[in-house]
Amino acid sequence: xxxIITAFAAAPDRGQGQARDMRVRWALEEAGQPYDVRxxxxxxxxxxxxxxxxxxxxxxxxxxxxxxxxxxxxxLLHIAERHRSLLPVDAVARARALSWMFAAINTVEPxxxxxxxxxxxxxxxxxFDARLPALDAHVRKRIDALSASxxxxxxxxxxFSVADIMMVTVLRRLDGWNLLETCPNLMAYVARGEERxxxxxxxxxxxxxxxxxxxR
Length: 216
What we know:
Layout: E1 4-8, H1 21-31, E2 36-40, H2 48-51, E3 61-64, E4 67-70, H3 72-82, H4 91-121, H5 128-150, H6 162-171, H7 184-195, H8 197-213
Parallel strand pairs: 1-2
Antiparallel strand pairs: 1-3, 3-4
Helix pairs in contact: 1-3, 1-6, 1-8, 4-5, 4-6, 6-7
């Protein structure tokens, strides 16, 4: 049975590959695992059938037989455990990869999302300009620490792994903010991820949904 994932029928990122189903698509492409996609409108994301799998009414979800998962960390870990090419064989390197995967979503991504939301809902508020430097500083603190840890390594845990899928997709959310420019190694790291054929296949598949939706 082919896994089924859910994605936006009309993604709010306008085809930029930043919706979180991108992470799952990329992992499945790296694993060589064919999959199907169920596209959902925002209204359908609030319906009982979807809430039974994703109680918070978000995407993506992942279904594979009796297995039904939500949260990208859980989904990527499940995929990686079934397709061992996405995790190091060595136990120490595997533990490091898992640590970095969860650091991406628990430590690096939250201040990025906080800044995104502030720009989205507070940009016209009188306090926004005064608040922005603090938001940027919080993001920069995280990426500076990540830059120092990555140093001149190609990937986070030796060989490419789900840690890199998660971290690259998180860092791509900084596009257009000019915050990565002080970390050339992170810019090169993101570029390496984007150059992978599996990334391009996942991006193109998500972009095709955007085009089909008729959104401009």
